[in-house]
Amino acid sequence: MNYFKILLLLCFTMILAASCEEVQEESEIKDVRLYGPVYQFDEEQKDLIVKNVYDVGDCISFVNDDELELQACVQRVNKGISQRGGTTGWYSIPRYQTEYSTIHFTIDDPRTSFETTLAYVADFSRFGNFNVKLLFSYYNNNATQFTDGVVLNGFFDQPEQVMTIGERTFYRVVEINSGTTLEYVDSHTNITVNVNKIWYDIDYGIIGFSTVQNEDWLIKS
């Protein structure tokens, strides 16, 4: 089993299609007459965005009961205003501007030749809907990129839990559980999809996950 790939497969049964919108990363709001309406975070929405300070090069590790370890390191951190939509090729999406916050991790997997990444993303859709997402980008052996993800908003309605792992205590934990007991092999990547539960701290991000075989991977304290 490719243990390092497990982190990329947290999407289990909840898949978010990759967006086809044109994205231009900017730091300032542009003319709304040309670039469309502007959506920005209010205080309630800011409270749902990962607040732990991650710097480029920071790494987090997860270990299981057999002391196998996987590591994800921060590749980049981006915040600002991006202009989205417009006409690209045969489709056209109304223009709009969204505040966004993203933290990108690369997964350290010496057993693969293709890049895999995890990102915490907060932004708005073109309809002004606020979303917090986990995005997973990876390549198959033919170097074709895939992006899947999980929208977290619906899970924020459940009661927040306190969870202690080793010497660390997390105070805003929600459990994201697909309820499935089955695993399958992704036909695009030949990766076994077997994660069915995530423990996600609203302030910190992923602190642990479990497979359908009840194998827990918890953040290293």
Structural overview:
With 221 residues, the chain is mainly beta. 4% of the residues lie in helices and 50% in strands. 29% of the residues are buried.
List descriptors.
single chain, 221 residues, mainly beta, 13-stranded mixed sheet, two-stranded antiparallel ribbon, 2 helices, disordered N terminus
Output mean pLDDT: 82
Low-confidence sequence ranges: 1-24
Overall geometry: globular
Helix and strand sequence: EHEHEEEEEEEEEEEEE
Short description:
The protein has 221 residues and is mostly beta strands.
Helix and strand layout, with pairings?
Elements: E1 23-26, H1 32-35, E2 38-39, H2 43-46, E3 59-63, E4 69-88, E5 91-107, E6 116-124, E7 130-139, E8 145-151, E9 161-165, E10 168-177, E11 184-185, E12 192-193, E13 195-201, E14 205-211, E15 216-219
Parallel strand pairs: 2-5
Antiparallel strand pairs: 1-4, 3-4, 3-15, 4-5, 5-6, 6-7, 7-8, 9-10, 10-13, 11-12, 13-14, 14-15
